[in-house]
Amino acid sequence: MLSPGRPAPDLELPTASGGTFSLRALRGVKHAVLFFYPKDNTLVCTREACAFRDRFEEFVAAGAVVVGISDDDERSHQRFASKWDLPYPLLIDAGGRARTAFGVRNILGLLKGRETFVIDRDGIVRHIVRDRFNAQAHVDEALEFLRAQRRS
Fold it and tell me: What is the pLDDT of residue 131?
């Protein structure tokens, strides 16, 4: 299982807009906040995505890129992003390769986990939020961690 202080796995996934997102491309430039969520347009996932949307500018001001990741397909992500006006990319993790690389745990072996990773400019995981049901905690903790790093 991935823990703070460890290098983040290399991540290169397709985006819902047809591009490719590379975590490596952010090294030396920006922090990354990657939130893995179970499914587009479900209750808690929508709350989480909208909470990241509502505080998006604060993440940008903290020098971070926000990215949502699930195994939903391009069309599902496009509808989800459009319906909720999401300003950040949604990545397609077909087959759960990234989920596995980051060690995102399933609940009872059936339900996909909800975890958020804050990764610094050097590609090191600095903070992880693991809360299945409290979507707001992911946003609040990630943002507070980034702000604390700026004050240090």
Answer: 87
Specify the pairing of strand 31-36 against strand 64-70: parallel
Strands 12-14, 64-70: pairing is unpaired
Determine the Cα–Cα distance for residues 9 and 91; give it in Å rounded to an integer.
15
133 is a domain residue: yes
Predicted TM-score (pTM) of the model is: 0.95
DSSP character at residue 8: P
Q: How many structural domains does the chain have?
A: 1
Cα–Cα nearest to 90, from 36, 24, 126, 23: 36
132 pLDDT above the threshold of 90: no
Beta carbons within 8 Å of 125's beta carbon, 6+ residues apart = 2, 3, 4, 5, 6, 7, 8, 117, 118, 119
Q: Which of 26, 45, 81, 90 is catalytic?
A: 45
Residue 139's CATH number = 3.40.30.10
Active site residue 45: yes
Predicted pLDDT of residue 151: 72
